[in-house]
Write a structure and sequence with these properties.
The chain has 89 residues and is mainly alpha-helical. It has helices at 20-42, 47-69, 73-78. Helices cover 58% and strands 0% of the residues.
């Protein structure tokens, strides 16, 4: 009796699909959005302002995380690979 195993493939979230330049830009922009959101949140005057500032912080977190990991789930879903990265698997 033989057991066949599937070829080893790393999970999709481990693939790097963002260029180094874009990664740095995402981290910088994300951190700036997080800091701006927190600073604005301290002086929020209305519920609408609070909601918008929390959304700004969430967007900043998304940018910082995707930049730090090098993986953008939207790029993966769309099948987009930057030309600079080529066709890696």
């Amino acid at each position: 009796m033989t057991v066949e195993t599937a070829p080893h493939r790393s999970p999709a979230w481990r693939t790097i699909n963002i260029t180094t330049t874009e990664r740095v830009a995402r981290i910088v922009a994300g951190l700036a959005a997080i800091v701006a959101g927190i600073v604005l949140l301290t002086a929020a005057g209305s519920v609408v302002a609070v909601v918008l500032e929390v959304l700004l912080i969430a967007a900043g977190l998304d940018l910082a995380v995707t930049g730090a990991t090098g993986h953008c789930p939207l790029y993966a879903k769309l099948g987009y690979t930057p030309k600079a990265l080529g066709r890696r698997s």
